[in-house]
Design a protein that fits this description.
alpha+beta; 2 helices
Length: 72
C-alpha cells in the first residue's frame, strides 16, 4: 500500500489563499480564467509561490493558449 498523496495546489485571489485543490481542478481554473498567468500558485514540494506562467504543470498547451486571451 502506498502513502503517496496527490499534490495539493493553492492559488491567490487577492490576499486570500484558496485551496487545497487537485491538479485537474487547478487546470480547470486555468481554462476558465480564474487562474491567470500572473496568478501566484503553490503546490506541495515547491519552495516558493510562483506566477502560474512559470509552472509547467499549469501552463496550457500551445493550442489551448490561443483560446485563452490571458495566456496568448
Amino acid at each position: 500500500m502506498s502513502d503517496v498523496q496527490p499534490a495539493r495546489w493553492w492559488h491567490l485571489q487577492g490576499e486570500e489563499q484558496v485551496g487545497p485543490i487537485g491538479l485537474e481542478e487547478a487546470r480547470m481554473l486555468v481554462a476558465d480564467g480564474t487562474i491567470r498567468p500572473d496568478t501566484y500558485v503553490w503546490s506541495d514540494g515547491m519552495p516558493d509561490w510562483l506566477p502560474a506562467r512559470e509552472v509547467p504543470a499549469l501552463t496550457p498547451p500551445q493550442e489551448l493558449r490561443r483560446q485563452l486571451p490571458a495566456w496568448a
